[in-house]
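Just scan my protein:

. . .
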Amino acid sequence: MASIAGRPPAQTGAHNQELYIPDNDIAEPVLSIVVPALNEELVVGAFVDWCHEGLARAGVAGEILIIDSSTDRTPEIVLEKGGRVLKVPKRGLGRAYIDAIPFIRGQWVLMGDADCTYDFRELKDFVTAFKAGSRFVMGSRKRGYMEPGSNPWLHRYVGTPVTTWILNVIFGSSFSDIHCGMRGIAREALVAMNLRSQSWEYASEMVLKSVHMGLETAEVPVRFYKDRDGRVSHHVRAGWFSPWHAAWINLRAMFVWGADFFCLKPGILMLILGLLLTLPMACGPVTVGPITFSLNWMLLGMTLAVVGLQAALTGLIARVLYDRRGDVRRRLLARFPYDRTVGVAVLFFIVGIGFAAPLVVDYMTHGLALADPSSGTNHRAILGLMFTAFAFVTFVFTLVLHAAAIQAEEREDR
């Protein structure tokens, strides 16, 4: 990687990372402004000036760290203005933040864009929230100001509100603008998040993990401006499909990190509905008004019950995988100890065989032909199949739960 303005890097890291330090560098920053940049020479100088002004207004010692993958004069301008430059290969927005973590010195981290769309002159509210104990501070354009023309109509009134609503429903949160790029987080929380997203979905991953980690969270208003004359946004540079792709991968992150929402409660509902359909017909058909509930209804109930139990238990496993503090894992291990839960699975299996065995006997004694479909033997056999399936699902859940717990404990011990 070529040096910047003829000077060698002050520090190198893994994966072709090179850190360049300005002549007037600050020694002990409290706040680190960490922002990726890609060919922003038209505006990055003004952006760094805004950052200096914002730090002065907030009365906090801070550093400006630009993660740069540019081919223009962006890094030279940043250094001239007193910001640090971390040169990295172009690998995606999320990856830029991951690359920056070892080089962040401040106690608090403020993120955003280097294009003068977010007003970093007004970062005092973030500092105030941090001082009050917040560990994750989300900016909100909705609660602040959006300059006319700064956000396309589809993004402002459809994309952002809809995806924000989806996230709040899935995670029980109350964010007003999950796609706001200006956000702050305590450095130790950022490290603990262990971000994996390489692209735009890092924003959703960060929000979701802040909820899973139970971080003390605040939301502050921010000002958002349209692109300056001559500058073209990265979405426009990437083509018309870029915003749609960003929306899709953000939704993917929400769904993957919120799998328990789609499994646990829906699974419990299906299980209850399936049992309500199945159990009353254990001895034969049941007539309610003009409707007679018989084998077909019972098969439907059995299917709902088995799928529901599987989904609910999978949701519990998902919660263990998301658990950052170990509370969920310890609670579930206490409720589902190995010996007792395997014993329940064995009991399900015995009960299931007990209900299904008479049908097998009838089948053998009637010349390999089933008895009258309306007989109670058939209905009890379906009940037996359901309990046998319950046995298998419960046994597998027990194995996976305890295996996941062991893996989590091993990670904590490292």
